[in-house]
Design a protein that fits this description.
By secondary structure, this protein is mainly α. It has a single domain, classed as Leucine-rich Repeat Variant, CATH 1.25.10. It contains 9 helices and no strands. Helix 2 runs antiparallel to helix 3, helix 3 runs parallel beside helix 5 and helix 4 packs parallel to helix 7. The longest helix has 20 residues.
């Protein structure tokens, strides 16, 4: 983005990511816990969209958030598994996806198991996310086929 305020915010977040990681993680944890009981998944979807955007511009802020997404792949609620599958798929297919895959191998391996999820909607979300991976540059295509 060409907006000076956005560039400044991105620079500040990247420069102070180690101090902000805990607070960012707490923010997303609070949103997910607060809204998962209400089955109001709109706020959780907004949080996942924000995670995707942060990954694009300030990935170092999400160091503690990625394990949360990994846990969301394990929950019983299908809607949350779909959101986590989509969000991680976008993160893996982003320009730094290969590095992301190497940095979080357990998340990558668990995400790959969504192709055999018990819910057809989650399997469909996985297949749709794979499209971005196959079309992205890098080693992701081979990782999917070999995974």
């Amino acid at each position: 983005m060409d907006q000076p305020a956005f560039r400044l915010a991105t620079q500040v977040c990247n420069a102070s990511s180690t101090k902000l990681q805990r607070y960012v993680c707490q923010y997303f944890t609070d949103i997910i816990l607060q809204h998962s009981d209400e089955e109001d998944f709109e706020e959780i979807q907004k949080a996942h969209d924000l995670i995707t955007r942060l990954n694009r511009f300030c990935p170092s802020l999400l160091h503690n958030v990625v394990p949360q997404l990994e846990e969301e792949l394990r929950v019983d609620e299908v809607s949350i598994r779909i959101m986590a599958t989509q969000t991680l798929g976008e993160m893996f297919s982003d320009s730094g996806g290969t590095d992301f895959m190497k940095k979080y191998p357990s998340t990558w391996n668990l995400w790959l198991t969504r192709r055999n999820d018990k819910a057809a909607a989650v399997r469909l979300a996985f297949v749709e996310a794979c499209r971005g991976l196959v079309l992205s540059p890098g080693d992701t295509r081979e990782a999917i086929e070999g995974g």
